[in-house]
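Pipeline run #58 for the internal structure catalog. This entry was flagged by the ingest filter as a single-chain record with no existing model, so it goes straight to prediction. Upstream metadata was stripped on purpose; only the residue string is passed forward. Reviewer on rotation: M.T. Logging verbosity set to normal.
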Amino acid sequence: MSLRGAYSLWAPLYDRVVASLTRPLRRQAIAGARVQPGERILLVGVGTGLDLDWLPREAELVGLDLTPAMLRRAEDRALRLDQDVGLLEGDARALPFPDETFDRVFLHFLLAVAPAPPTVLAESARVTRIGGRIHMLDKFLRPGQRAPFRWALAPALGRIATRTDIVFEEVLARVPGLQVESDVPVRLRGWIRRIVLRRFA
């Protein structure tokens, strides 16, 4: 099953399954980002719009997702919140924006879902201005970490929801021009990490 097909099936259940588990983490990550009024923000893999609850109305928000069914729910959420968000369908591996368009890019629980994580991160870096930041919240293994259960789950889960075998440092090593500004373990003994990258070139 394709990723689009899997998340089309997930869409009606997504908030009930995922929201309660991730809301505190999203809230903390966005509060820590200190988004400023007028900043241009891109939410890659916006999904049902779970991050919108904490982003300021004064920021210029754009959300992109591969799945129309998820985008419809994000649109409903934005309307309920009276939040002005530009929502569009697109692929995180080929973002439809010029270079250096955004002040910040959020990749919350996306890099471990999308095919070709280095390509997704490189595209996010491309559309981030020099000095801008990429904010990530996701499940990442560390180099050399022994996690046999997670490695064993990866092939099956990767087809229907998310991968469990992504080593962040290996992904970052393939994308030049990014510097780790912070890397904080937040849940599941450090498997879920909150990472902020700064684009310097």
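catalog note: Residues 3-199 form a domain with the Rossmann fold fold (CATH 3.40.50.150).
catalog note: The chain has one domain: 3-199.
status: ready for reviewer M.T.
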